[in-house]
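Hi L.,

You mentioned the student needs an example of a multi-chain input paired with its predicted structure. This one should do, with 838 residues in total across all chains.
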Amino acid sequence: MNISNFGRKIAVQSGIGQLMDDLGAALAQKGDVLMLGGGNPAHVPEVERYFRRSMEAILADSDRFERTVGDYDPPGGNVEFRRVLAHLLREQFGWDISLANIALTSGSQSAFFILFNLFGGRYEDGTVKKILLPLTPEYVGYSDVGLTPDLFTAIRPKIEHLDQHLFKYHIDFDNLRIGDDIGAICISRPTNPSGNVLTDSELERLSDITRARNVPLIVDNAYGTPFPHIIYTDADPIWDQNTIVCMSLSKLGLPATRTGIVIAREEVVEMVARVNAVLSLAPVRIGAALATDLVRSGEIVRLSRDLIAPFYHAKAQHALELVTKHFDGLDYRVHRPEGAFFLWLWLPNLPIASLELYERLKARRVIVVSGHYFFPGLTDPWPHKHECLRLSYAQNEATVAAGIQTIAEEVRRAHAAPS
Amino acid sequence: MNISNFGRKIAVQSGIGQLMDDLGAALAQKGDVLMLGGGNPAHVPEVERYFRRSMEAILADSDRFERTVGDYDPPGGNVEFRRVLAHLLREQFGWDISLANIALTSGSQSAFFILFNLFGGRYEDGTVKKILLPLTPEYVGYSDVGLTPDLFTAIRPKIEHLDQHLFKYHIDFDNLRIGDDIGAICISRPTNPSGNVLTDSELERLSDITRARNVPLIVDNAYGTPFPHIIYTDADPIWDQNTIVCMSLSKLGLPATRTGIVIAREEVVEMVARVNAVLSLAPVRIGAALATDLVRSGEIVRLSRDLIAPFYHAKAQHALELVTKHFDGLDYRVHRPEGAFFLWLWLPNLPIASLELYERLKARRVIVVSGHYFFPGLTDPWPHKHECLRLSYAQNEATVAAGIQTIAEEVRRAHAAPS
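Structure written out for the whole complex:
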């Protein structure tokens, strides 16, 4: 079938498309598959109860349900939700914003599609600008959103060894140069896939540099603070006129409602709303509706800190213990889990590439994601890119335990018989 | 702020963006505004009851609510919904399809963004293909979705005068030429804005021509049959391997759930799913969940035919009577309302452009849409383009009645004092 370049790039050759097909095909055989691959959040019963109660309240409140499903929101998203969210962020965190600084999108992914193509790509004067990812590994979902080729550029991280098996990535500020070919900078905090949380001082330094260069700093806060706050270190929510913070209701437990949140200076928010109109008329309303009361009361911050963060932190600790146990004697490292819900496993000197390890694991019905997907824009030949796996620890303990055991077995086998 | 060409085209210069801003600003002063401008469907109480019961059933069915909001669907959309919909269309209407022929999107608008840019735009061999709209006026929402400039081309319709005041557009087949520069053809049926319903024989002829030329025929069935079936004439639901039927749950009463449905040959559906993954990971799940039981039982077809069609048909008749009454003595024509929920008012020899009339009406707090927006791709200077208004009759009777009365007054005034 004859299709356009857009189709070839986005619909056919997209890595994330192939990855999601693969995950989907694996899931279709469900039952005896150990799914450590996807980004689906856990079902946290205490949190789910809030959303169930919220839907019951919507149904009980005269025609609120009918309005929630039956009336389009404006292209920028539900006004009441944006109003209470602006209030929360202003009062609790001192952000100097109003509802005009907030637009909703069809999930974070849609926000990145919009923002990266707004600031990256071809400009009227003929120049082509890139999105700089100052810290790789970085989120696989960015890889394919570029409407122009080679939208990303990235630099290698510095690696801090915390002990024999724990490490942490840092931005290599010495090699961070923001030329005229950079349209925006983006980091995820916590980082998907590594679980790294940029320190406040790293973020401030990045913020200073980008502000000085007049280049927007996009912070992918999908797992971040103040909600869902899947963060196990100290980290403050920061925002200023040069920063575009992208949040989401997904990891709070509402992924299927596709609710992304962009917080930025007003002209950026207006542009996001305009693109929403062209892409899908308006964002979906139900996610905002389910969360409005939680945001109005501030409860969303408390439940993130008191329920969600400890829930995933315990899972992270447990997953780390399992790795320590099963990988004993193997050459391995793990990024210190500081947030999100992934273990980033580094297998130095692995005799096979991570993609081959992924295939072998899939044959044993353990689904992970090969680390090589998570280096968008990093063109260096760097062996590290093929030595890592991302494992979700969001699923139940038995799945995670059996998965990690099988991974260790396959790594051991690969070292024993490389070919 | 410095932004890319994509940003300039989609976020800044977009006509639909400006239109929606304008509608939004008008709505923000709600209360005493007569809104005949938007595309929001009516609240049909008998239909709303189905969706309320559906949500209650989801809440009552163990953890179905939690899965509905808490688990990502695959990029092609909810599998169970696609399965029961394929079954319905196969069994009741003889379409030779399975769930692999169906993908969901974030509303119809998103489907058109994807499809028009898949088939239109720049191809690998350097050619640039257009989307041909064989019958204008055509839906304003298409206008801005092109990632490349001048994505559309269109031809003037033939006009059949049914009586002194009623007319109907027809495709001018004599002037319909499908050159190598055409990537796909698209028609909305019923047509938004005119309420025209292409006859079965017109549609078959179009289908034959496109099949012979190996160019996909995209049918925008957002108001069409078998659901929501806002159609007052005889019209069959048709599909074949060369046809891409785009449906929606919006006009059924679920616009805020953003649920579009693309029914096409498998390779097209796979591409739509891939683009979904890049644009927003996966479609929202709640719309599909609310409608699944209605589709499984076939009730969706009955309620569309027995509740929704008569509801809007009565409103159409009433609106037509109001026009007949208030426009008495004026030079006016109305497209025969055959479906959708708009009156398309043609004011031949209007001394002012429709956009100016729109402005004067807005000053009197009556919001309509100027007809000139609805000719994407038609570059001819044709006075007709500036002589029409689109009025929604979906709102309550008092609003529609007062709105039409004010429009007639302003038209009369314009004729009396043109400048």
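You could point out the following to them. Chain A touches chain B through 85 residues (CB under 8 Å). Residues 38 and 132 of chain A are 25 Å apart (CA to CA).

Best wishes,
N.
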